[in-house]
Amino acid sequence: MDIRRHRLDNGLRVAAIPIPGLQSAAVLLAIEAGQWFEPIGRPGIGRLCALAMLRGTTTRDAKAWADALDGIGAAARLDVGSHAATFSAQSLGSDLDVLLELMADAVVRPAFAPTEVELVREQTVAQIEEDAKNTRAVAESAWRELVYPKGHPFRVRPIGDLDVVRAASADDLRDYHRRAIRPDGAVLVVAGGVDAEQVFDGSARAFATWRAGGTREERTVPEARLVTAVRKLEIVPDKTQSDVVLGWPGLPRTDPRFVAARVSNMVFAADTFASRVGHVVRDELGLAYYVFSTLGGSRGQSPWVVRMGVNPINVERAVSTTLDELRKIVDGKVTEDDLELAQDKLVGELDVARESPAGVASLLLEGEIFELGPDYAERYPRELRAVRLEQVVEIARTFLQPDRHALAIAGPPLPERD
Amino acid sequence: MHALEARHAPVVSLWVWYQVGGRNEVPGTTGMSHFLEHMLFKGTPRHPKGDLDKLLARYGALWNAFTSEDVTCYFETVPAERYPVALELEADRMRNALITEEETNAERNVIVSEREGLENDPSFLLGEQLQAVAFSRHPYAQGVIGSKEEIKLMTRDGLYAHYRRHYAPNNAYFIVAGDAPASELLDRAAAAFGPLDAEVPIEPPKAPEPPQYGERRVIVRRAGGALPIIQIGHKAPRAADPRAPALSALAVALAGATAGGGEAASGRSARLYRALVDTGLATTVDASFSLMKDPYLFVVEAHLRPGVTHDRVEHVILDELEKIARSPLTDSEFGRVRRQMLSASAFMTDTITWRAWRFGQLLATGAAASLGGWYDRLAAVTAEDVRSAADSVFREKGRTVGWFVPEPS
Predict the structure, then answer these.
(1) Which is the most buried residue in A122, A311, B187, B238, by most CB within 10 A?
(2) Which of B32, B51, B395 has the alpha carbon at shortest distance from B237?
């Protein structure tokens, strides 16, 4: 891949990956304004601010901004995760300048008009109410409360706390925006049918006036630690299936063991077909339609969780089978073939991701935002290949202790346990 | 067999589209095509169970399968040097799948679990009911996954007979797209699938839907959801109908080219978004015209804000549908619709997997014989075509209205 980099005066880092032969360009703007950076006691303020940024600017009201975006046929969304608020978009390459200008307008000059803030607040309140009946969301929330102490940024899902959402004023959002939506630490990645100069010139024009508003608020984050197995069952009425979240606090993306952890995750449960848990729980025993694990990447202990959808009568067996597979890894009963399969899968996925501009941009983003080095894209496959079996076992023993897990189940009542 | 060159990445995507789905089933065996789809991952004599999964996993493949009312589809996107293996795997399982009693029973639980997961979703429950009420004779009424009871009754022998009858080269489209000359892609495909025997040609199901003489309604009441939902389906023409491109444009005019909750920034200039979301009546709204072999439904779905009544939102939706059927889109509106369709086509073309998917979908449903042909027809749509298509579809006599009404826990 032909990767070109540039840094604007305000600190925004820009990476361009021209791909000859394509008509469109994928754009990812990741701002360090995820949950990790939210003020203590204000979970959800980040997402609310992001949604309000899409509802009009000081130069265009919400309708004019939406007309302009649809006028170039772009697809765009703004999501808040554990580490970043990520504006992801795609347009024709010839429309890149207009797209960047519209993105910058929303990011740099949001109006936070009271009626628009009220609209996104009510939308968010409705979503939180809906999530209270959604078994996946309920299980996820319950799991976070089991694992993360009060005051931890990951204790609540990114959608936030109902009281915080209800109380936030337009001025609160404006204040949060000034402090958190800043170019230092932010990364813009553009891949596709564009040339690098077009990207650098367009981003310079669009984002030149973006300035950081004061210093970042320092936040002390308490450690998340499981000292025993903990469990919570949430009954959600009129549901057929139980959603299960089983997991542990993970490790920061900047931890030198992270790549080994990612390989361990693949050996354990990341993929329904390439990992041990999927093979046994779904393929051999037929206990679940979906079962997979994810390891989040942030500056903190993001969730490292296995998720599955299971009939209530099979929940205990599916969970104990998953933990049995984990014990095998912890006990060193993992084979070179397991490891090689996991590494092949992870490296092969990097090749396949190159099929689309969005895939190429995503490949770059992690290395750019966590400043993993200009050679990261080239180095990363080698790092995956270099992980040894002993590291997988050590990672599992350190981070995935079978007897110190958190288990959350949401759905119908479970049958009586023996 | 069709091949498309796409040389921007070292990747090849292969798709097999079997002409069998929910449409080919009769009561008592609904869900059979979908069940069979699961069984195609259980091995062949040459590639025992686990071979395919592990090989494709090792390649880092993007791969899966799905079943719809019309088709059952299998695909793999793999690094270019691996595609001959993926091709061999697909050709092998076209005729040689091992469907054993033991694996059938084990997979039954997985499919029941899939069904139960869907039942947790109020939107699925309402959609299933809406479809059942909208069609009185056509098998589209049955949906795809089948009832839990029928899944439990499915036999190995029934599945195997369904497999042998429908899985043959003369009942499938094969699409390959990627980083090799089209002639090479085609030659290899011919070598893989050419030796396979054809089956007796299958007559399409003959169960035309009789005319509908007035609006139909259905209500689903459950505690398993907090927000009320409305779905309104209007009988719409098949993919091969000349109005299909205009109906695709109509869906964009009503709800944008991309859907996706509060985080989505695009599609907000669309009529229903403005009428329902901007006004605080709904949290999300979508409109879809599906390319289908037989006449199906143009569906509008809205998730209501708490406290907003179904009546009110239904009235607003029907009012908007009537307006768009009465007067053409303004020039600026139509300009946005055209740009969204043009861009969406480019986004799809620039991703090898989706380029192959789109081509297969057009062929399998009879919408067009080539990607270029379809895009040309989309580009030729006029504002008057959109109005006229809306006018022909949004009629009370072809309407089915569904409400999901949340009940107290």
Answers:
(1) A311
(2) B395
Q: What's the confidence (pLDDT) of residue A416?
A: 79
Contact residues on chain B for A290, CB-CB shorter than 8 A: 117
Decide which of B162, B193, B224 is a domain's last residue.
B193
Strand partners, A294: A305
Residue B13 sits at the chain A interface (C-beta within 8 Å): yes
Residues B165 and B286 in one domain: no
Check if the beta carbon of residue B251 is closer than 8 Å to that of residue B259.
no
**Alpha carbon A281 to chain centroid, angstroms:** 26
> What's the average model confidence in pLDDT over B378-391?
98
Q: Residue holding tokens 């970043």?
A: A84
DSSP-assigned letter for residue B50? T
Within this chain, do residues B155 and B118 fall inside the same structural domain, yes or no? yes
Task: Give B358-376 pLDDT, tens digit per residue.
Answer: 999 999 999 999 999 999 9
Tokens of A306: 């296995």
B379 interfaces chain A, CB cutoff of 8 Å: no
Q: Model's pTM, two decimal places?
A: 0.95
Instruction: Please report whether residue B331 resides in a domain.
Output: yes
Question: Which residue of chain B comes nearest to A91, CA vs CA?
Answer: B343
Domain match, B165 and B233 both: no
* B204 within a domain of the structure (yes/no): no
CA distance A408 to chain B (A): 17
- A-chain CB neighbours of B260 within 8 Å are 77
Please check whether residues B255 and B362 belong to one and the same domain.
yes
Q: Which residue, of B193, B208, B241, is where some domain finishes?
A: B193
Q: Are residues B301 and B181 in the same domain?
A: no
3-class SS of residue B4: strand
Q: Is residue B392 part of a domain?
A: yes
Exposed / middle / buried, residue A366 (Cβ in 10 Å: 0-12, 13-18, 19+): middle
Residues B279 and B401 in one domain: yes
- In order, the DSSP letters of A368-405 are HHTT--TTHHHHHHHHHHH--HHHHHHHHHHH--TTS-
Handedness of CA A259, A260, A261, A263 (dihedral sign): positive
3-class secondary structure, B341: helix
Cα-based angle B121, B125, B126 (whole degrees, multiple of 5): 115
- Residues of B within 8 A of A356 (CB-CB) are 9, 350-354
Q: Do B222 and B172 share a structural domain? A: no
Give the domain range for residue B125.
2-193
DSSP string across B298-325 = EEEEEEEPTT--HHHHHHHHHHHHHHHH
Per-residue model confidence as pLDDT tens digits over A232-289: 999 999 999 999 999 999 999 999 999 999 999 999 999 988 899 999 998 889 899 8
User: Which residue's structure tokens are 């079978």?
Assistant: A402
CATH code at A230-411: 3.30.830.10
The reply to whether residue A348 touches residue B264, judged by beta carbons under 8 angstroms, is: no
Report yes or no on B205 lying in a domain. Answer: no
User: Contacts of residue A104 in chain B, CB cutoff 8 Å?
Assistant: none
Total tally of structural domains belonging to chain B: 2
CATH 3.30.830.10 segments of chain A: 4-207, 230-411
Pairwise pLDDT comparison (A140 vs A286), residue with the higher score? A140
Say whether both B236 and B297 belong to one domain.
Answer: yes
Give tens-digit pLDDT for B84-115. 999 999 999 999 999 999 999 999 999 999 99
Of B8, B116, B339, the CB nearest to A71: B339
pLDDT at residue A30, rounded to an integer: 98
CATH fold for the domain made of A4-207: Cytochrome Bc1 Complex; Chain A, domain 1 (3.30.830)
Q: What is the CATH number of the domain that holds B257?
A: 3.30.830.10
Judging contacts by C-beta atoms under 8 Å, the chain B residues touching residue A240 are: 116-117, 119-120
Residue A266, Cα to own-chain centre: how many angstroms? 17
Nearest by CB to B9, from A23, A77, A354: name it.
A354
